[in-house]
Amino acid sequence: MSNGKETLIRQQFEELVQFFPGLKLCQDIPGFWVIRGTLSFSATFQDVTMSDAFSILILLPNDYPESPPVVQETGGRIPANFHQYGDRNLCLGAPVEVNRRFKADPRLISFVGTLVVEYLYGYAHFEKTGTLPFGELSHGCQGIREYYQEAFSTDDVRIALALLKVLSDGAYRGHHACPCNSGKILRKCHGPVLLELLKYQPKESFLLEATNILYSLNDNELEDFNWNLLPKQLKRELDAMARERAKREKCT
User: Fold this and answer.
1) Which of 70, 111, 185, 203 is the most buried (most CB within 10 A)?
2) Same domain as 23, residue 97
3) What would the pLDDT profile of 102-132 be if each residue is shown by its tens digit?
4) Using a CB cutoff of 8 Å and minimum separation of 24, what contacts does 77-82 make?
């Protein structure tokens, strides 16, 4: 890590620890920075105040602050099925939304004070009342699907996939017809939303999220599904898998 990045991290941590003194900055191996300790907070939403404390681990990526940190709860209090990924990183929201909020203010104090505290407040509220203060958000692939359908203002998952294909393929052309079949050109329809999303993550990330949405489809939705709605790379991978499977079945 360059001296400039180390200086930035130390400065941001000094700001963070003024509000959350139970945290410590550590360099476990050269260039690999983490923040661990007890995060104590008091937060209010709709007149309901939660004061609580959680043991957490914040891992800073190699390209910080280009990418946001990831967070784990290390006290064993939050069960794995409560909005966590398979690697036990906390699901703080749809990845593109986390990126958007972090890029708007790429400081540790803002990241922890909003995204992390919101998550922990939500769990503390759920633990105490059995309800989630911000409404139930779906897990995993279904949650990604719901995020993009809301972002694109559509109930049709096929439209969400068609628009994600534009992002994944790097194929934005403002004069082309919008994939939502509105009859408008892209720049006068969903184009502004796509251009806004492109600010926050590379096309490879949109490819992954299109893959997640594909996995969310049920049997009825897969009937007569138009596979050309998928990003080119994903379709190539699926076609290759289908050919390999056909070869194996032929051999047996």
Assistant:
1) 111
2) yes
3) 999 999 999 999 999 999 999 999 999 988 8
4) 78/54, 78/123, 81/139, 82/123, 82/126
